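Margin note from the TA: students keep mixing up input and output lines. Inputs are the sequences; the output is the structure of the whole complex. Example:
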Amino acid sequence: MSMAAVETKKITLRTADNHEFEVEEAIAMEFSTIKTFFDENPDASEDTIPLPNVTSKCLSAIIEYCKSHLAFRARETSSSIDEQVRTYDEEFVKARDNESLKELILAANYLNIKALLDMLNQAVADRIKNKSVEYVRRFFGLENDYTPEEEAAIRAENEWAFEGVDPDDD
Amino acid sequence: MESIASLPKRPKLPIPSNDVDPIDHGNKSMNDLPEPVVHHIFSFLETIDVIRASAVSTKWRYLWTSMPHLNFDYQAGWLNPLRQEFSSTRVYEKFKDFINWVLMAHDKSVNIQSFRVSCLNNDDDRSLYRWIKILAQKHVKELHLKVKSYKRGPFALPRYLLAPDSLEILELDLQRSVLKIPSDVGFSRLKSLQLVRTQLLDQNLFHNFISSCPLLENLRLEGCLFHDFKVLDISLRNLRKLFIDNHMCGGSFDERLRKCVFKIACPNLGYFHLKDPYAQNFSWDKIPSLLQTATILPWGWEDAVLHEELANYLLKILRGVCHAEVLKLGKCILEHLYPAVAEPRCFSTTFYNLKSLKLFTGIDKCYIRSIIYLLKCAPNLQLLSVYIDEEEYDCDYQWEIPDEAIACLTDHLKMVKLIEVDNSDYELELIRFLLKNGHVLEKMSIIWPSDLQRETQMEAIQEIMKFPRSSSNVTVTFSELKESDYDDVL
């Protein structure tokens, strides 16, 4: 490997809404789906990779996340770095609404970015922990397609599971 | 621009099978999250939340039966409504019934990946063992048990857990009860073993047990009691991380360990953490050459130990970590290092790979001499952090650190951080010495303790800014103590 000029290789990604993003190879390699793709097709690295499942808004947030985490990892490990990572992750999630979280989860799942997916899924879990059935329904946008009898039967099976929940705050 | 259609042979990224039409933003909800993702989200929750979610919609009715992660916590808040109505015995009965029901109704064809439970283990109650039997049949990979036994009754690791031999991670927190280990057995797939607040009775059983887990990479012993152990022998070929922290045990515990010998033979060890009362002896049967980080914070009542004995003990530990890249050392090592080194039989280990050194120290001639000595042993050191534990000292205004060229100061040391610096002569002398001899120093951070008067700070700053510097581009910064400065070391 030449030590003289460090060429940062760029990979081009095209999103669902036809925006092109040039990212450094190191960042693209954080996306396991893309990494595997390149491992199997080494000649394809010059081409533009289409990502029909990811919007530009999503991809840009994901790229920011991966960039920041790569930077954190490059620094020496210590609990003050861990603290900064935690704060960064909290901020990343805090302002986003459920819809935007879902898009990010789907994208992180498709691109197979384990760390981001772990973090996002934990964040969703924290939001729905010990919440009522109605809250979880609204959160995931699911319809209650049970008949009243069916629903009553389910609730009766473990009735105290449905008490003691936190009040809905939405 | 070429379209994909015109190059049919160009490889494409795989598209997930249950995907939604990507441009259709009309379907704004989470209900198209694929099942593995939903499982993943629920894996962070207690099983009670997953059961409750079955009432959300018919789609999720049986989601929980195929959840590979189960999580039950007797201490959790969801049992509070029950606690208001029923006695604690009755509540615990309901808790057990719930776990029984979940395990029985769980999909037979789905294996359990992880099972976490925080429960009780009363004398005549075999529930916990029944659950483990079912889990063994379901090829459980991860088991996290937090068990409280009111009479401190023992917990016996069941043999049938070993039959399918699927276990990879085992964590036991017995809240000070005894762990009975079966003899002549081991887990052939176990990678990580964590014993917290566990009493171990038989050193041979323990040694044989861990030695029969050939894939063990991570061993963590936290708050454990080793009854009548003469030798704590950890000889594991594949061990990467060893964490021993038993300093919170209290009572006459440290007396017991005083008679014990630590033996460590782990050639592939990468990470070593020891925060334990002084034992009788320490031996590294193989010095781990791949060591990256070592933390040594030994602890104990010094009146009970002869200084020479203690020095020998500490130096032995230190010799074994000579390949470390990052080293964190506790105060008593520094207290005994210099005097020991001054003797004819000296400590001549070099830490060639050491890049970062973090020292927890007092501030006294003896400590400073030890610090200087360590700098001499670490020719490639780049970062030095010194955490100062203020204590009484005799002032010696005339004392100066003898001038000499030290390899790391001349060529490598870039950053120095001194935490809780007071305006004492010894601390100022150390700063002076480092500034004078640190030829490639780039940054020195001086952090005041939280109660230091502004006046004292200003006095110290004035002194320090007068010191000659051999590095042309060093910046010296002064700041107040933050929480994040401190938890870095311990």
